[in-house]
Amino acid sequence: MADLDTRYNPKLEEPKIREFWEQQGVFKFNPKSGKPLYPIDTPPPTVSGKMHIGHAFSYSQQDFIARYKRMRGFEVFYPFGTDDNGLATERLIERLKNVRSKHMTRKDFVSLCLRTLDDLRPAFVQDWKNLAISCDYSIFYSTIHPRCQKLSQQSFISLYNDGREYRRKAPIIFCPVCKTAIAQVEMEDSERTSTLNYIKAKVEELPEGNAYAIYATTRPELHPGCVGISLDKEGTYALVELNRLDPETQQAERWILSKEGVEKFKSEFKKDIPDMNLRIVKEWKGRELIGKKVQIPFAQHPVPFSHDESAKTEYGSGLVYYCTYGGLDCVEWMTRHPEVQAIPIMDESGTYTLGPYKGMNSGDARKKVLEDLEKMGLLIKKEHLKHVVNVHERCATDIEYIATTQWFIRILDLREDLIQWGRELKWYPQFMFHRYENWAKGLKWDWCISRQRHFGVPIPV
Ligand SMILES: [Zn+2]
Fold first, then answer.
1. Ligand 1 midpoint to CA 409 (Å)
2. pLDDT band at residue 1, thresholds of 50, 70 and 90?
3. 392 C-alpha to center of ligand 1: Å?
């Protein structure tokens, strides 16, 4: 008792306790003990820098269970691993070594990563030891170790043999900064201030004469990739006259929008367009307009009006324009309209490859297209709004949907099974099951497993 300090100093005392645990092999897994086995499958922490408070929080919770089970007489199998084949690790190495993986050969970058990880790993693992996480650190694995790579590759091959995998050119979620495909789970929501832009586009060969279709978009930069404009075939659409002259015909300018939209536009647009005063001169059922072509500005060719379930006369102008790809709604629209050919306009660096905005990224192209539309007299109103966009969780960049060739694991047909399997587990706390269930119900894509990166498990093809 005499050598106990009056003040407890963890910096002095904890190393002694750790050393004792280590010498006694307290956390050592003994497969021959004959005790009932209690294995814990830890999610290996991502080597992305130093341990953070979130790690400390979640690993402590697991550790309470491990220690409790040991005390209850179980043989706890609790190995420790690091997840270091991910994008986070690639980013870390690029930052630490001030390199860009894409500017190096794959071989050089991979060997730089492996060397750097060997340097980083001991200190990283030490953080877990310092926190007294009671793993058996002698059973160590790393997700980039050859054995783990081999396991992943074997799993790839067996899924392929089961017909669960396929490779195809499909719209995928893509991060233009990380320059890689990402999975749905790697996205998060972020609020952006932007403008909803109301645009007019000339309708061709209308027996009633010159008229413009009115639609709104937050992504006007995608005009060169426009593939369609949809309406509700059962809805009522109106031809309206404005109190101003159409510069082309020197007669009253005329717009086409849903009848419900007319009243809304009258009140909401009054301030911006004082000479609007929309007067209805004709009404149609949406279906009567189907097939009439619209000269969408900057589009590759005129696109016909089509019916689509997403177009509702009570929303906006009742007309919706679709591009490849303005977002998930466009991807889904394309699957409902298989007759329409995609017009890919963006490459894998997030750069436009077609039309007047070739060479630009989305941000620059958006500014330029709005200036151009304004000059052409086709931008009728800009409405400031806050809206939620999907961003890549790692870098907070707005994601894009582009068509690339990727490998997918078929999972959408397993949605009901996934939920059923989830029901068979015990969840603590219970509401986490509902979170899981919502995730499974919300799955919209098969699982894209390929990435455009240097450091990772090579696909065995
Ligand atoms: Zn990113």
1. 22
2. low
3. 5
